[in-house]
Design a protein that fits this description.
This protein is α+β, with helices and mostly antiparallel strands and 211 residues long. It contains three helices and twelve strands; from the N terminus they run H-H-E-E-E-E-E-E-E-E-E-H-E-E-E.
Length: 211
Amino acid sequence: MARASDTRSAQTKRNPIVEIVTIIVAALLIAFFVQLLLVKTYRIPSGSMEPTLAIGQRVLVNRIGMRFGDPSVGDIVVFHPPAGADQQPPICGVSTQGLGSSQACSTATPQRSGQTFIKRVVGIGGDRIQIRDGHVYRNGRREPDAFTNPCGSGQGCTFQGTITVPDGSFFMMGDNRGQSDDSRFWGPVPKKWIIGTAMATYWPPDRIGFF
């Protein structure tokens, strides 16, 4: 009987504040490791992905999937662009390509930018890519793009040449074809620079859904 009484007494002496703090710390640690290893949230900073993603919209990005496979054409991905994207105008790894030239950028600068971009994959390693009036022709066939905003007649809407995406890299373009700083100007993105694939949008409430 004395032992049972001692046990109840010890239980009643537990500090509820300590228990609450312990629970909060545990929850924060779990959330931290989930973001670090599995899922991360991102806010859309510009209109380059309109009408699919609006400025201020928030998405969930699957990080672990990159360990088991590659993104596919049509996937929306978060990544670090090449350092050439840090300049204005952007710099291509081949000086005769990119912004203002007759050919889209086929080779990125070797350094990685610290910026984080979100774009759509329009070409993978080995694909032959042409850009006409903002439309992507992949291996000779025009890709479906009813989800995009028209490019218009602006710079970067049409390139005369054809480029081949290097193996292990991905050609990215924004859905707002006339208002997107993307692979057309600074080149394909190596897989190791891709953070993850966008899997859902959770804010604002009227745009909640999966990709």
